[in-house]
Specification:
This protein is an alpha/beta fold. Helix content is about 35%, strand content about 25%. The protein has 5 helices and 5 strands, in the order E-H-E-E-E-H-E-H-H-H.
Length: about 160
């Protein structure tokens, strides 16, 4: 990356409280920062503890000046819940990518509580960072008691993302 200018890319995470949207965005930011990108993040929690909307904007590149994704400029939209998919689709670029859990994905998620790691596994297939970096950060950020299930979900997401 040294010497080259990397244009700013925008990732929108949107879910409802309790789905692990914030943890997924924190893992993604850490992975990107450790990969030498300038990273900015903004979060909106709303009534997240009661099942309300949770959004996180992530912007990364050589130099990022604002944490807020401009309207219609989302490159990758990670939808954690169908209601949030419908509500936030307007922020996606015309050629943007939507990442979500499809019906055919459900058999690859060992437990509903780790669907967030499954989604970032799928996301990782669209970002210029090696899988090992993702796994290293997950090992740092996920409590040891839940690590195996989370790594399995992440790895299954990577497989489904490449399928």
């Amino acid at each position: 990356m040294r010497g080259s200018v990397i244009p700013t890319k925008n990732i929108l995470f949107a879910g409802i409280g309790g789905q692990g949207t914030i943890l997924a965005s924190e893992i993604t930011c850490q992975v990107l920062m450790e990969s030498q990108y300038d990273v900015k993040k903004s979060e909106v929690h709303g009534m997240s503890q009661r099942g309300g909307s949770v959004k996180s904007d992530i912007r990364f590149g050589s130099k990022v000046y604002s944490p807020i994704i401009p309207d219609g400029e989302t490159d990758i939209f990670v939808a954690f819940h169908d209601s949030e998919l419908e509500r936030n689709l307007i922020f996606l670029k015309p050629d943007g990518i939507v990442i979500r859990i499809e019906d055919s994905d459900k058999q690859f998620i060992p437990h509903a509580k780790v669907s967030n790691l499954f989604l970032i596994g799928k996301l990782s297939c669209h970002l210029p960072v090696e899988t090992k970096k993702w796994e290293d950060v997950i090992k740092q950020m996920v409590p040891p008691a839940f690590l195996d299930q989370n790594l399995t979900a992440f790895r299954n997401g990577v497989k489904r993302g490449h399928a």
